Amino acid sequence: MPLHNNILPNIAVTDFAKLLLNYSTDGILLTDSTGLVIAINKRFSKLFQIPASEVLGSNVLELVKQGAWSPNLFQRVVQKKKTLSVIQTTRSGRSILATGTPIFDDVGKLLYVLFNDRDMSLQSVLENDSTQSVEVVINADAKVEHFVPETQQYTLSGIVVKSNIMKKQLNLALQVAKFPVPVLLTGESGVGKTMFARFIHDQSPRRKGPFIAINCGAIPDQLVESELFGHTGGAFTGATAGGKKGRIQAADKGTLFLDEISELPYILQVKLLQFLETSQIYPVGGTRPIKVDCTVIAATNRNLASMMANKLFRDDLYFRLNGMPIELPPLRKRADEIPSLAQFFLEQYSTRFGLEASLTPEALNELAQLPFKGNVRELSHLIQRLLIATGGGKLTVEHVHEWATTKTIDTLSHLPHYDGTLSQQVSQFEKDIIQQTIEESGSQAEAAKILGVHQSTLSRKL
């Protein structure tokens, strides 16, 4: 549409542009197709507290690397070729609702990307009684994940919420992030506890410090103490010469995330409690305390109340960890989020695999009807499976039917026959359940999470 159709004849286009640059209450930034900043308005400089001289002529990718704001929105807009919005954080910690819009010429060539930035805190977005989904980017690649193998590092970079209950829980996480108190995340396997832990760290005053994640159920019992608390040289046979820093110490000035806290051996729970009460640790073989200042986030999919009743988890440790409890509901109780999550995962994986893909409305509706016993993790894996199996393109309801692992089974008519004593038959039944879960999840570690047992226990029963 010609410009003159949007402006009355008595005002010049140049005057209109000057008014926008000088008086708009939203920040405006314009880049070329490579990310080079070619124009900003006064409000942008004020919002981001950065002079125009440092922005004009610079590339937004370099500005993000320098910490002017995060996360980077430019690349996502260019890759997806559509308008996208995220919550960005400025150097001073201010939250900005940023919207990037790609601008093309008549033949579809990208010319510019226009950014509109509004001073709107994440809290106000979450408290807004709206049915729109909210996507919050997690800076998963911003800091080094000490002690976490590359294959276990976070690959997905955001949280998507739409239901009121999840907006409420995310807002609660946002509030508790301001304070150095322990947080206990509970919920079924796959509901997003790890991403919530990462979000709390990213929103906290310690966000520039390390985020140290440890799965208490993935380390052999005999190594847990030295992995958590470290050890001195010669503390035991095979100890690292010169000693080794534990993961708690590595989290100093940052956040320690204890996943599957229910799997921590009972004998070590008192030592963890001592650290939580004194902020000091004693490495294995050491006699001098080491001061550690970090925020502790714990997570579990187990019923800790039942474990306490059976003397499997210490009451005093529970009350110390339960500084702020946050329960994440299963996906089946917030099915209205499934389409938004599916679209999010589709974008993430199609970008990673270099594929173009879309979900038909019928496919999205079918996804919303599935029970997803593995919760968000199962949905994520299903979208990944659909992309790999189809090679991209339109993902239809037939594809969902073919690749969804959930099937209706007449359980009574398919019960296997077992022989032997009751104990022997129970053992055979457990083995079948474990093998089936491993086949569906793809690994013993994943199966252990779904079944809620220690990986070593699972291996022993095979």
Number of domains: 4
Contiguous helical run count: 20
Choose one word for the global shape: globular
Sketch the major β-sheet: 6 strands, antiparallel
Radius of gyration: 26 Å
The oligomeric state is: single chain
Q: Give the strand order of the largest sheet, numbering strands 1, 2, ... along the chain.
A: 2-1-6-5-4-3
Query: What class do helices, strands and sheet pairing give?
Result: alpha/beta
Estimated share of beta-strand residues: 15-25%
Poorly predicted runs: 140-155, 406-413
Query: Might you state the CATH topology name of the largest domain?
Result: Rossmann fold
Describe the 3D structure.
With 462 residues, the protein is α/β, with parallel strands linked by helices. It has 4 domains: 3-120, PAS domain (Beta-Lactamase), CATH 3.30.450; 150-327, P-loop containing nucleotide triphosphate hydrolases (Rossmann fold), CATH 3.40.50.300; 331-403, Helicase, Ruva Protein, domain 3 (Orthogonal Bundle), CATH 1.10.8.60; 412-461, no CATH class. The protein has helices spanning 13-23, 42-48, 52-55, 60-65, 74-80, 122-127, 164-176, 193-203, 221-229, 247-250, 266-278, 304-309, 315-321, 338-353, 361-369, 375-390, 397-403, 422-441, 444-451, 455-461; strands at residues 27-32, 37-40, 69-70, 84-90, 95-104, 110-119, 134-137, 158-161, 183-186, 211-215, 255-259, 280-281, 290-291, 295-300, 324-327, 357-359, 393-395. The strands form 5 sheets. A 6-stranded antiparallel beta sheet has the order 2-1-6-5-4-3. A 5-stranded parallel beta sheet has the order 10-11-14-9-15. Helix 7 (164-176) packs across helix 8 (193-203), helix 11 (266-278) packs across helix 13 (315-321) and helix 14 (338-353) packs across helix 16 (375-390). The radius of gyration is 26 Å and the shape is globular. Residues 140-155 and 406-413 have low confidence and may be disordered.
